[in-house]
């Protein structure tokens, strides 16, 4: 493989923004990619994938390169040299790579790989917490969460079918495959910028992981129902709920951030979803007004995001144990307060993109034992794990109001 100095320089700059300035990896990469309009898709792919790879394996690469945070530019260059050697490529004869100790790098890799926290590049606290909660399967899950995630689309049934979309994408030179477990999902055979396609501009699909696509159907909505999507964010699940409801009935999408709800409205227009109404949660009144009125409630709760590390590897370095404690309290509070909107015989789904029992099953059990939860019964639980199911990690519980 032939390396280009300006592309590695761009990678080093992106890493600086992520590691030293605390920027989110996706945003830092998007910004760097705007730097040179002459870069083609291969160049862009190189910068994005190399940056993500080094973010994923930060602890391992930093240890091998013997560098420490905050990283100086020379340290980041050393980490890219480690990446090049471990990928089996010849190190370019550039000044930054002068005297790269290739044999030592390989030796250190073999030595450090015996220890999971280095091999899978994990903070100690995260490794211990996940081991405590997941037991023996953590080993395999940690490794699966370090694999690059597929790009998965959800065909928007308000406008198209998966078969029709597949053809349209093919005409735009994007090849996709289908998966029997995920009926609306199309998986890209090769990475591409799907947001540039006409099919996207026409609202024929959304980018949504296959695991995430199982949550809205789990809510068992029907056309004409009144449904609340309590933690709607920018609306990934709300748009899918609208499609499942064939635009009939009402979806009340709430969040504590107006900016996310604005983005939801924009996406809904593109998708042709007309039955979504957004409401900002800026006081307790919003929930009180809806008490006992909803046929269905979806709580797609804020969580640690440990199930989606393949997509957000920088979360390994940004997450703190205190945040997970706080988010657990928020999850229980949301369950307690929002569950009041469900009418008798109505149903509620609690979902997260976490793989920790303390954010999932244990939260549901705690809720069911509480006063608010005593009027609900658990119908079904489902969880997805990256190593077992091949997609992101998710949890969902369906509860019925007695
Ligand atoms: C997992 S994300 C939602 C993703 C979204 N449902 C989707 O499918 O794209 C969780 C959301 O909960 C919101 N949130 C956090 N605390 C909340 C609260 N107390 N009430 C409502 N939403 C809240 C966050 O702003 C965030 O958008």
Automatic annotation (TrEMBL):
A molecular-function term among this protein's GO annotations: RNA methyltransferase activity
Keywords recorded for this protein, A-Z: Methyltransferase, RNA-binding, S-adenosyl-L-methionine, Transferase
Ranges where the SAM-dependent MTase RsmB/NOP-type domain occurs: 141-402
List of residues binding S-adenosyl-L-methionine: 255, 282, 300
Pfam families to which the protein is assigned, alphabetical: Methyltr_RsmB-F, RsmF-B_ferredox
Alphabetized Gene3D superfamilies for the sequence: Vaccinia Virus protein VP39
Keyword Lipid metabolism tagged: no
GO terms for biological process, alphabetical: RNA methylation
Superkingdom to which the source organism belongs: Bacteria
Active site residues of this protein: 353
Family of the protein in this entry: Belongs to the class I-like SAM-binding methyltransferase superfamily. RsmB/NOP family.
Protein name in the entry: RNA methyltransferase
């Amino acid at each position: 493989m032939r390396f280009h100095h300006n592309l590695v320089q761009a990678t080093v700059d992106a890493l600086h923004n992520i590691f030293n300035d605390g920027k989110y990896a996706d945003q830092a990469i998007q910004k760097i990619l705007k730097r040179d309009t002459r870069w083609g898709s291969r160049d862009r792919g190189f910068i994005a994938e190399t940056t993500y790879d080094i973010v994923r394996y930060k602890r391992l690469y930093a240890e091998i390169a013997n560098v420490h945070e905050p990283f100086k530019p020379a340290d980041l260059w050393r980490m890219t040299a480690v990446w090049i050697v471990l990928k089996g490529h010849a190190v370019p004869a550039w000044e930054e790579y002068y005297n790269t100790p290739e044999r030592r790098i390989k030796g250190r890799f073999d030595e450090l790989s015996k220890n999971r926290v280095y091999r899978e590049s994990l903070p100690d606290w995260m490794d211990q917490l996940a081991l405590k909660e997941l037991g023996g399967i953590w080993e395999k899950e940690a490794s699966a969460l370090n694999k690059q995630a597929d790009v998965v689309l959800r065909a928007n049934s308000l406008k198209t079918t998966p078969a029709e979309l597949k053809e349209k994408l093919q005409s735009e030179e994007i090849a996709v495959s289908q998966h029997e477990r995920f009926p609306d999902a199309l998986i890209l055979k090769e990475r591409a910028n799907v947001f540039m396609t006409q099919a996207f501009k026409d609202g024929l699909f959304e980018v949504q992981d296959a695991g995430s696509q199982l949550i809205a159907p789990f809510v068992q909505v029907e056309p004409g129902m009144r449904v609340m999507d309590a933690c709607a964010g920018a609306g990934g699940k709300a748009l899918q709920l609208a499609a499942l409801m064939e635009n009939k009935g009402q979806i009340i999408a709430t969040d504590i951030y107006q900016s996310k709800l604005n983005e939801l409205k924009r996406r809904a227009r593109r998708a042709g979803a007309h039955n979504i109404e957004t409401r900002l949660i800026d006081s307790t009144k919003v929930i009180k007004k809806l008490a006992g009125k909803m046929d269905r409630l979806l709580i797609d709760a804020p969580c640690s995001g440990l199930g989606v590390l393949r997509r957000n590897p920088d979360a390994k370095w940004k997450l703190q144990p205190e945040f997970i404690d706080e988010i657990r309290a928020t999850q229980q509070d949301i369950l307690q307060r929002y569950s009041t909107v469900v009418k008798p015989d109505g149903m509620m789904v609690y979902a997260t993109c976490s793989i920790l029992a303390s954010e999932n099953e244990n939260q549901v059990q705690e809720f069911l034992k509480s006063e608010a939860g005593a009027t609900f019964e658990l119908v079904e639980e489902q969880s997805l794990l990256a190593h077992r199911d091949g997609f992101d990690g998710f949890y969902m519980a369906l509860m019925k109001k007695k």
